[in-house]
Amino acid sequence: MNEVELELLIHDIEHLTDETDRHRHTQLKMPDLVASIDAGTTSIRFMIFDSTAAIVASHQKEFTQHYPHPGWHEQDAEEIITVAEECIAEACKKLGQQGKYSPADIKAVGITNQRETTVVWDKETGKPLAKAIAWPDTRTTHTVHQLAKKSEKGKDAVKEETGLPLSTYFAAVKLRWLLDNVEEVKKAHDEKTMLFGTIDCWILHNLTGRAVHITDSSNASRTMFMDLQKQTWDPKLLEFFGVDAAILPEIRSSAEVYGEFGAGPLQGVKIAGMAGDQMAALVGNKCLKPGEAKNTYGTGAFLLYNTGTKLVSSQSGLLTTIAFKAGPHAPVHYALEGSIAVAGSATKWIRDSVGIIREASEVGTLAAEVEDTAGFILSRLLVGCFVRIGTIRLRVRLWASRRIPTSDTCAERRSKRRAIRPRPFSKQWRRIPG
Question: Is it the case that residue 331 has pLDDT exceeding 50?
């Protein structure tokens, strides 16, 4: 073998070795998966994604909704975390059964959640001090009126700082109600043995073995305690609502490591993203630039319009909110939001309260079987109006609508409605459920 042939042989061996190493590296390389906890208003879902964003395993389960009084909507915070842990365990089990992946391949988990729902718990025991007050709950109407009286601006008392009007919708008003009406909550607040948080904060706190008390800026912007421009808790707002800053979580960005799972199949896996569900939907629909918007339908319906780094105050009833902050040093992005409280929950009401369907999926099938509604209109616009006059007006409108053909012109319909004289209402009439 001459010198040239020797050099060619060495080159071939080196090339073969490189190819073998690359093949071995490909075989040994662990697949990277990420996962998300979707903590909605009525159910929890845990989804695991591969590097192409395809879902490789998931599990979903509903949890109990409590309606102890008209206008009240409560949830059991302990049940929420139990269901979340069950969904994580079941999805990881499904992942392992495929044979291709294992829970060890999951590198990070994010949390997205129903917003505004308010949880208070004991700092030492970790046990809730009361049922969580869900975001659609309207028991705080009187609290809103009382707070509005404290300012010349009325219901816009804190809008300049928070982008939000005083409303039953937001967490600060729910917390104020708890402090005024639940002695155990007031006592724990005054003795500084209580912690407060929205569902993101509650889930993160529990999954990390109660190691951290953190929320992200998108969820914090729905509490009415945070200054939108500074993204910090505002002492003046806390004074207005009568809340001690010691009970509040730390505000972080929407994309950073907050902590690790303390137990379970994902023990040691980092929790590294958090955003309110509507803000997460804005990002998920790739509305990352100013002028881009999304409208999504769940329990309610929510339109969010990205305004970029510019904070825009609406004069038409829209809410100003934080859209996302993509990292500790990233600029904050804002959004305008239009909120409709009742969308999918109307279908749930038809299923659970009216009882004319067994599964929500039946609605589409049944609707396709008829040409039109025969003039019947279901209005949920009076949600939150529980005085008798609201119930009567709703009944008259539905009663009249059923009797007017859809082919009539608007003028003919108005004439026929005036001609209809409903019978006197009996006190024994049972009000519409919900």
Answer: yes
